[in-house]
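Quiz preparation item.
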């Protein structure tokens, strides 16, 4: 391609180059222009040597006239393939030698004759520059003789044009602009059962019992995709069991929780948010022990309310499989209310008051890790300290999905609370564990 572009650029000056090549074949053309035409009388008086010299000048003059005529013929041409032989690698063409050995050395094509004369002069003077010959070119492939023929378009474009379809009349469209909904609602719940049978003569002892647990989590979250988030979560859980050895209570609760969490966040930087958190929790039913009529806890006995301000970090790791929030609340306000008078002192309230207020620092972390598609781990770590009393709760729930609507759960709940009486074996530590299998549903 570069070679053809160079050839086309040179062809723009073809007349000057051709004229220069022909001048090389002559001995002194300028002398011929200054020579006057000689009459027949003068020629007869000249010596044979002078006569031969004058004849050679006349021949050169005829060549120049033919060259000027050829140039005048090509004034309107832009590209002529006949000049190709002058600029291609030097090749021996047969036409020049055939014309020299022929009785009629010229043809009707003055340009071709001039090019043949120039090439013959080059062959005789510098044969070392000739790198190829016309016979080898013909053996490789025929020489094109249609370079001067005009190319015409043979395709009828009408046959390829698809008909223009008739456009229907424009129908007015009513555009309805709706305000984006930044609220998202979701939830999940399960109902699971556990049955345990032990014969009366079982070597390790024990007793048969039945238990069931129901739980539901509802969330209503707001996110404007800019800076503001507002998350609300309601957790409800209630577990009931039977115990034949308990002669006082037919049923007792073994799992009881009613908790509401609300967080307002303003983005500070990327995953960090300024946060105002409200946490309120109590239980549904009375808390009892086997063969004991004493009530250890009840609805709103106690009722705890915590309000804290601080920073929240949104966790998103392991390719989206680990998500959650970490809330650091250095400034928090604790409020406790106890409805039952008999439980006032047991919940750290002095005197006849039913309420207790205090300031504290608080941390809340909630994470969910989808270990595999069928197994997930939910964990919640809550720590609150008034710097004279500390409470730490670590809830862990492992869920194994058997099918879309059936799952098995393992629940581990260690707890530390130095506000209660110290146990001889466990100290201030407490532990709850249970497992179940049953129905589950989420939306």
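Solution:
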């Amino acid at each position: 391609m570069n070679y053809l572009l160079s050839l086309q650029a040179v062809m723009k000056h073809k007349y000057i180059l051709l004229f220069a090549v022909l001048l090389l074949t002559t001995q002194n053309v300028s002398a011929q222009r200054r020579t006057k035409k000689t009459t027949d009388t003068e020629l007869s008086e000249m010596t044979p040597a002078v006569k031969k010299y004058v004849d050679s000048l006349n021949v050169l003059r005829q060549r120049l006239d033919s060259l000027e005529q050829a140039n005048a013929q090509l004034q309107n041409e832009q590209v002529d393939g006949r000049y190709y032989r002058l600029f291609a690698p030097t090749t021996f063409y047969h036409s020049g030698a055939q014309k020299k050995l022929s009785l009629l050395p010229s043809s009707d094509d003055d340009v071709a004759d001039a090019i043949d004369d120039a090439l013959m002069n080059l062959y005789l003077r510098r044969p070392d520059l000739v790198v190829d010959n016309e016979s080898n070119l013909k053996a490789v492939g025929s020489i094109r003789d249609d370079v001067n023929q005009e190319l015409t378009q043979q395709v009828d474009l009408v046959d390829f044009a698809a008909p223009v379809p008739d456009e229907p009349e424009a129908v007015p469209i009513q555009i309805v602009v709706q305000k984006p909904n930044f609220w998202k609602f979701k939830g999940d719940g399960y109902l699971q059962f556990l049955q345990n049978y032990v014969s009366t003569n079982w070597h390790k002892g024990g007793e048969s019992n039945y238990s069931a647990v129901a739980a539901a989590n509802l969330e209503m979250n707001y996110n404007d995709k800019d800076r503001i988030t507002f998350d609300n979560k309601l957790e409800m859980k209630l577990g009931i069991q039977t115990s034949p050895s308990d002669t006082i209570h037919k049923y007792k609760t073994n799992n009881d929780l009613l908790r509401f969490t609300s967080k307002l966040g303003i983005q500070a930087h990327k995953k960090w948010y300024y946060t105002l958190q409200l946490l309120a929790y109590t239980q549904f039913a009375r808390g009892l022990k086997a063969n004991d009529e004493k009530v250890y806890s009840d609805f709103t006995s106690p009722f705890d309310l915590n309000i804290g301000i601080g920073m929240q970090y949104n966790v998103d790791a392991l390719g989206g499989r680990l998500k959650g929030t970490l809330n650091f609340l250095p400034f928090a306000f604790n409020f406790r209310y106890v409805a039952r008078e008999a439980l006032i002192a047991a919940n750290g309230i002095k005197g006849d008051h039913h309420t207790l207020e205090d300031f504290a620092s608080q941390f809340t972390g909630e994470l969910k890790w989808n270990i595999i598609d069928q197994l997930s781990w939910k964990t919640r770590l809550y720590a609150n300290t008034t710097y004279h009393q500390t409470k730490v709760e670590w809830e862990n729930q492992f869920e194994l999905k058997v099918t879309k609507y059936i799952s098995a759960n393992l629940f581990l709940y260690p707890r530390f609370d130095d506000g209660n009486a110290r146990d001889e074996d466990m100290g201030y530590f407490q532990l709850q564990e249970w497992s179940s299998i049953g129905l589950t549903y989420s939306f």
